[in-house]
Amino acid sequence: MQRNFFAICLFLTAIFTGNAQTTIIGFTPENAKREIALEKAFEDKLSADNLDKWMQRMAAEPHWVGTEYGQKNAEWMQKQFQSWGYDVKIETYHVLFPYPKIRVLELMAPTTYKAKLTPMAVEGDKYTAQGDALLPSYNAFSRDGDVEAELVFVNYGVPKDYEQLEKLGIDVKGKIVIAKYYGSWRGIKPKLAAEKGAIGCIIYSDPKDDGYVQGDVYPKGPFKNKTGVQRGSVMDMPLYPGDVLTPGYAATKDAKRLNREDAPTITKIPVLPISYEDAQPLLEALEGQVAPESWRGGLPITYHIGPGPAKVHLKLEFDWQLVPAHNVIATMKGTEFPDQWILRGNHHDAWVHGASDPVSGMVALMEEARAIGELAKNGDKPKRTLVYCAWDAEEPGLIGSTEWVEDHIKELQEKAVAYINTDGNGRGFLSAGGSHTLQAMVSEVAGAVTDPQKGVSVKERKIASNLIDGGSDDFELYAVGSGSDYSPFIQHAGIASLNLGFGGENEGGEYHTIYDTYPNYKRFKDPDFAYGVALANTAGRIVLRLANADVLPLEFEQWHKTVSGYLDEVMKETDTMRNAVEKHNRMVNKNSFELAADPKEPFVKPEKKETVPFLDFTSVQNQLVALKGSIDTFKSIDAFNLSTEKRNQLNQQLMHVEQVLTSEKGLPRRSWYKHQIYAPGFYTGYGVKTLPGVREAIEQKDWKEAQEQIKVLAETLHRFDGHIESMNAL
Asked: I need a surface site. Which of 96, 394, 470, 690 has the fewest CB within 10 A?
């Protein structure tokens, strides 16, 4: 009886029996045994020595997009994949990339200081002494500019910080702001500063967040030393990622391009990242009000806000050139379903050497592909087609992957089953995010992979970490926002996607600096590459299960639970906002702010705020109830006893479920792309959010638009319900 019950529910229910696991989601009992044996054979072929050797080769020289060494890496990877039995090609796009020509930052008053803008080479790491070969520190897609103005410290430069400045009567219009890294994605800082009227932006890493307050600095320890600078893009990716001159279509050699002056994703003001060594004299020269306690960092100074008397001069000029971005695409044709693709990707370009970001993930992908190639040569070829992708130009704005998706969008939406992404990797706990339709399958795989330090499954260790941090004992995927190459797949093409990596015990300050090198990685990140092997093992098993499943392992109960939770969060948020506004207005009426203010400090009396209306969520709530019924019906289907024709139809419909959840209407109003409406938000508003269209409208206090977005969300869920009902009809 029990075996028959499992056969019926196998498609939707993850079943674990420790090391004796004999059933897996999406497989008949007989094929599950074959798959488990195949995955064990795959795991046995993984070698940490390969990862170590390949990282030394790939991270030997700087290799940002357009460099000769970046091309050499692409051509070398092409040969490796070919030797493992893949059909391989390099697909090249021609993308705009700014290289810094002039970088000047000077304190003009009340004292003078010229920023060094040069990191120091360190003993024991020869790669940090490569001189002119190292990419200067800058923010890609900053505007050229030559500005001079008073300085204002804006903490992390996020909306709540500007709200605090308004309460203090401080305006940044016509000023240059200095903001700390962290608190948001870096591109939000100059974007918001420009919206507030600032004419320039400086970003620095404070030692409290990313330096000696955290621990010993490099080379003694892993944390950022006084000269380290985080490079990074400040492209307006919420509008659209990818090449700034070809929005929505591929940057082929002969593509029609926008004039650079008309490209909307280039910042409106010049912006420059600096070290905390260069930041200290600027902050020290500020006067005015002392910064709130939560704003204060780890420098040995009193943090003042300004404006002034510190006055700074910022001059930036870039060489704007079209450069080649080389994507390596390696394909292994499926034996039974060649037109169903499992895509697996990691980027290969770096800001400098990139040992941790991205080479640690790239070499894990390669080892995974090598082991699967050996299995195929021995007769165990995948049923579905595998497509391994090494992306270029990820760092300046997810460019290589976005251009490829734009170039192949029609075929991808017909043939892609799922996309599995990795990026940097380190020692510690499994981090897994993405489409919640894949959550049950990922949970099963995580239960089958052993943690190299503790000897338990990576799932068990992750849950233990969750419990220690106050979370639940459930294994759940987080909702991906943006920041890596899954973005164009899930958010534009509507392809079920995952983002995987290990970390949490490899903290440091090397991110996007000259110190992200092989010696640093070997000392502080994953010295034995044990977690590189664990990543290859985890991602590889996911690839194999998706490739060989009798019925694609997508599940909807956990999806429904997740989306219902997102709706509860949004509804509670509006209630919280309403209560906060009512309290604020009561305090204004009672003169509470004025009475509590220090009469010797500047004071700006706050105004009453607009009342937050009650929004009508019933259409979404009712649709989720209807969906629950459809999902309950679907989970009772005995998918393995369907005819071959109907099972193939079911798989085709499962392939396209995420596309049903995209919409041109229910997205952030600024966004160029179609959008996954139900959950994994882009950088909507000023942070990663769920139910993005609704959330952004609420953040902007546009209540009419919020109600319209609720309507669009309900319509999308209704369309999704219809798609599930069509599968039930099989």
From this structure: 470
CA dist., res. 606 & res. 596, Å (int): 13
As given in the structure block, the two tokens for residue 433 are: 């995010």
Q: Is 15 helix (H, G, I), strand (E, B) or coil?
A: coil
- Name the phi and psi angles at 201, rounded to 5: -140, 135
Distance CA 146, CA 509 (A): 30
Q: What does the pLDDT look like over 529-538, one tens digit per residue?
A: 999 999 999 9
| Structure token pair of residue 196 | 């507030």
What is residue 685's predicted lDDT score, i.e. its pLDDT? 32
pLDDT of the residue at 237 = 86
Cα within 13 Å of Cα(413), Cβ side: 15
Say which DSSP state 436 is in: G
- pLDDT tens digits, 129-148: 999 999 999 999 999 999 99
Count Cβ neighbours within 10 Å for each residue of 274-298 and write b for 16 or more, e otherwise. bbbbbbbbbbbbbebbebeeebebe
Total residue count of the chain as it appears in this document? 730
Q: For tokens 């990313």, what's the residue?
A: 210
Half-sphere exposure at residue 573, Cβ-oriented, CA atoms within 13 angstroms: 18
End-to-end CA distance of the chain: 25
pTM passes above 0.85: yes
Which amino acid is it at 59?
Answer: A
β-pairing, 87-109 vs 113-114, is antiparallel
User: pLDDT under 50 in the chain at which residues?
Assistant: 1-20, 666-674, 678-689
pLDDT value of position 686? 33
Residues 6+ apart with CB under 8 A from 564: 624
Give the C-alpha separation, 536 to 360, whole Å. Answer: 11
Q: What is the pLDDT of residue 51?
A: 98
690 and 679 Cβ atoms separated by less than 8 Å? yes
* Encoded amino acid at 460, one letter: E
**Would you call the peptide bond into 110 cis, given omega within 30 degrees of 0 as the criterion?**
yes
Encoded tokens for 180: 């700390």
| 688 DSSP 8-state letter | -
How far apart CA 328 and CA 401 sit, in angstroms, is: 10
The pLDDT, as a whole number, for residue 23 is 87
* In contact, 25 and 440? CB cutoff 8 Å: yes
DSSP category for residue 216: P
Sign of CA dihedral 462, 468, 474, 479: negative
